Amino acid sequence: MTTEVASASEVKKESDQLGADATKEKPKEVAENQQNQSSDLEEEKDSQSSPSAKSQSGTQRQKRQKDPSESRGISRFIPPWLKKQKSYNLVVAKDGGDKKEPAQAVVEEQVLDKEESLPEEERQAKGDAEEAVQRKQQVIKVDIEEEKPSVSSPETQPAEEVRKEEREEEKVKEIQEDKSEEAAKRETKEVQTNELNAEKAVQKATKKTKSVQCKVTLLDGTEYSCDLEKRAKGQVLFDKVCEHLNLLEKDYFGLSFQESPEQKNWLDPAKQIKRQLRNLPWLFTFNVKFYPPDPSQLTEDITRYFLCLQLRQDIASGRLPCSFVTHALLGSYTLQAELGDYDPEEHASHDLSDFQFAPSQTKELEEKVVELHKTHRGLSPAQADSQFLENAKRLSMYGVDLHHAKDSEGVDIKLGVCANGLLIYKDRLRINRFAWPKILKISYKRSNFYIKVRPAELEQFESTIGFKLPNHRAAKRLWKVCVEHHTFYRLVSPEQPPKAKFLTLGSKFRYSGRTQAQTRQASTLIDRPAPHFERTSSKRASRILDGALVGVVDQSLMKDSPGPGEVSAYGRGVVSTAIVQDGDGRRDLRSPTKAPHVHLTEGKKNSLRVEGDNIYVRHSNLMLEDLDKAQEDILKHQASISELKRNFMESTPEPRPNEWEKRRITPLSLQIQGRKGDHLFKDILSMTEKHQMAATRTVEEKAQAADKSSHETLNVVEEKKQAEVGKDERVITEEMNGKELSPGSGPGDIRKVEPLTQKDSTSLSSESSSSSESEEEDVGEYRPHHRVTEGTIKEEQEEDEEEVEEEPSQASQVVEREAAVPEASPGRHAGASVSTVETVTQEHVVAPKIPAEKSVHEGAFKQDVSEDTEDEQHKVNGEVSHVDIDVLPQIICCSEPPVVKTEMVTISDASQRTEISTKEVPIVQTETKTITYESPQIDGGAAGDSGTLLTAQTITSDSVSTTTTTHITKTIKGGISETRIEKRIVITGDTDIDHDQALAQAIREAREQHPDMSVTRVVVHKETELDEGEE
Amino acid sequence: MGTPGEGLGRCSHALIRGVPESLASGEGAGAGLPALDLAKAQREHGVLGGKLRQRLGLQLLELPPEESLPLGPLLGDTAVIQGDTALITRPWSPARRPEVTPGGAGGIRASGKKWGGNVSARSSRPKVDGVRKALQDLGLRIVEMADENATLDGTDVLFTGREFFVGLSKWTNHRGAEIVADTFRDFAVSTVPVSSPCHLRSFCGMGGPRTVVAGSSDAAQKAVRAMAVLTDHPYASLTLPDDAAADCLFLRPGLPGVPPFLLHRGGGDLPNSQEALQKLSDVTLVPVSCSELEKAGAGLSSLCLVFSTRPHS
Question: Contact B181/A427, CB-based, under 8 Å?
Answer without folding.
Answer: yes
